[in-house]
Amino acid sequence: MIDMLNYDFMQRALIAAILVGVTAPAVGVYLVQRRQALMGDGIGHVALTGVGLGFLFQTSPIWMAVLVCVLGAIVMELVRARGKQRGDIALAMLFYGGMACGKLLVSVSAQAGSGSLESYLWGSILTVSPSDLGTIAVLAAVVIAITIGLRRQLFAVCQDEEFARVTGIPVRVLNLLLAVTAAVTVTVAMRVVGLLLVSALMVVPVAAAQQLTRSFAATQAAAIALGITVAVAGVTGSYQADVPSGPAIVLLAIAIFAVFSAIAAPLARRRHRAAVDHGPEVCKTAIPGQATSAQQNTGDDLHATTANGARESDPIASTGLAQ
């Protein structure tokens, strides 16, 4: 591994992998919380139009993809907020229209070529240029500032929009901000794992972390740690085995999810037995007609989303992160 650090392109690749390993799960934990795990995949389809426009006008495909993805994410959020029955059809046309338009633009551009398009569809981390790395770093900083700095407010909105709205939290603004942040994350990650696999890096580390954690804050921290681990390990392994880095990263993340799932089953049974064993003691100390202290604590946890934001240390049962 030390030998590959002698190459500038590998240094850029590892830095880009770390940035993506942080940003993708940091956003993905909110998408999983509100059951929008495939939103990244849809934005990835729309991003292809931005890549095509970048090729057509001979500008930075990343910045063009950011612009198009942000517009697409805003449209997606507005359609979701309306909640109409035909919203799914509108989103489907947006997704597939974005991919078709991107392919068409790439084919008529001066930079047309299957290799150039493949690098964005499946990722080509070894071709990350210094300018690409600078762009990725700036976008990643914005994503981290939003997802970490506004964690309490975003969690409250993802947990219960109606309750958050009653407490005075600007729900619509935060929903749009989350959609835009997801769009930016897609463009950050497309050079590392590709537009077709970016959603996996946003969701799989979060799903793996959920197997062993019991609070929102712990899930987010563990997912980010797993994202960094699989990104760096995937890039290193792809260099050693001479295979594409994007698929290697995603398959490694899925393997870790499988391992964590196998570990989580006996842990869940142990927690259940412990709860059953302590159940009679709680019942003996309870006063008829009154809730026990454990029940009162559970009730407090369930209503932990306040105007100042939610308590991320709440049990996983109250955050909705339980599988």
Automatic annotation (TrEMBL):
Residues 290-299 have a biased composition (Polar residues). Residues 290-323 are annotated as: Disordered. It comes from the Bacteria. The keyword Membrane applies. It is a multi-pass membrane protein. The chain crosses the membrane at residues 12-31, 62-79, 91-113, 133-151, 163-182, 188-209, 221-241, 247-268. Pfam families: ABC-3. CDD domains: TM_ABC_iron-siderophores_like. Belongs to the ABC-3 integral membrane protein family. This is Metal ABC transporter permease. The lineage of its organism: Bacteria, Bacillati, Actinomycetota, Actinomycetes, Kitasatosporales.
